[in-house]
Amino acid sequence: MTDAYPRKKFIAGNWKMHKTRGDVETFFQTFNRLISESGGFSQIAERYDVAFGVPATLFETCEQGVKSTGVRILAQNCHWEAQGAFTGELSVPMLKDAGVHGAIIGHSERRQYNGETNEAVGKKWQALSRGGLLPVICIGESRSEREAGKTEEVLSVQLRETLSQVSKDSLGHDFVIAYEPVWAIGTGLTATPDQAEAAHVFIRRELAELTSKACSEAVRIIYGGSMNPSNARELLGCPNIDGGLIGGASLKAEDFVRILL
Ligand code: 13P
Asked: How far is residue 18's CA from residue 235's CA, in Å, rounded to a whole number?
């Protein structure tokens, strides 16, 4: 690679289980005003792909809100089957029909509270790729795993087991890996740029082995865990940090826009 930053950065909000439709209208009024006051969305789009992962009840209102910008809407989960007796689930064709661009899968909160396994995450990845939607796959170690010196082992197992469900064909479609150390999520503790960069380099190296060198160099590996307007610039300045997945600081339009500007 000759260019140190060959990959366009991907910045996504993850709203988790927050906001009603009324909140969303207010959010995008402010978001769109701030963006237009700062010179319009096109200059942001030159540097970043921007997205919001939102609850399914908000897809339509969000799509209205981001109309005429290049901002994409993501789901926060999906099922791997196209249809069937799976009460409470949403399939990839349904998400496509609702106009979303992709889905965040394997978030640590879903692993923790919904028993999501690497195998299930891999099946979701496969279904999203097959369906033409963008998978944003979250991986990351817990505090005790980091303290026990097992970060790389955990990341490696997560990648290996997840990828065992993904066909070579599907790896030809775009995907994003989100490195989210569980100890940094919603805690105000952020991985230092050095810690995050080291994890991203490791993930890229593993991906080179598990997929191909070309795939590992093209894939965007983004960081999540207490990213905010004060620490984003430094994290995003690291050569292997290709963007951010932002929880708390994406809920307020002012904060999220400050990260983008
Ligand atoms: P916080 O930015 O609130 O730590 O959340 C990160 C996250 O979980 C993004 O998916």
From this structure: 25
Contacts 24+ apart (CB under 8 A), 142-149: 142/182, 142/183, 143/182, 143/183, 146/181, 146/183
- Per DSSP (E only), the strands in 32-87 are 48-53, 72-75
- Whether the Cβ atoms of residue 185 and residue 111 lie closer than 8 Å to each other: no
Determine whether 180 is an active site residue. Answer: yes
DSSP state of 58: G
Q: Which of 79, 101, 107, 200 is catalytic?
A: 107
Q: Could you say which residues of the chain have pLDDT below 70?
A: 1-5
pTM score over 0.85:
yes
Ligand 1 pocket, mutate which of 10, 11, 16 (most atoms under 8 A from CB): 16
CA distance 224 to 234: 14
pLDDT of res. 36: 93
Instruction: Indicate the DSSP class of residue 79.
Output: B
- pLDDT one-digit tens code per residue, 29-46: 999 999 999 999 999 999
How many angstroms is it from 76 CA to the middle of ligand 1?
13
137 C-alpha vs ligand 1 centroid, how far in Å?
14
| Distance of CA 178 from the midpoint of ligand 1 (Å) | 11
For 100-184, strand residue ranges (E) read 102-105, 134-139, 176-179
Ligand 1, atom nearest to 138 Cα: 10
The strand ranges marked E within the chain are 9-14, 48-53, 72-75, 102-105, 134-139, 176-179, 220-224, 243-246
* Ligand 1 cavity residues, CB under 6 Å: 14, 107, 180, 185-186, 224-227, 245-249
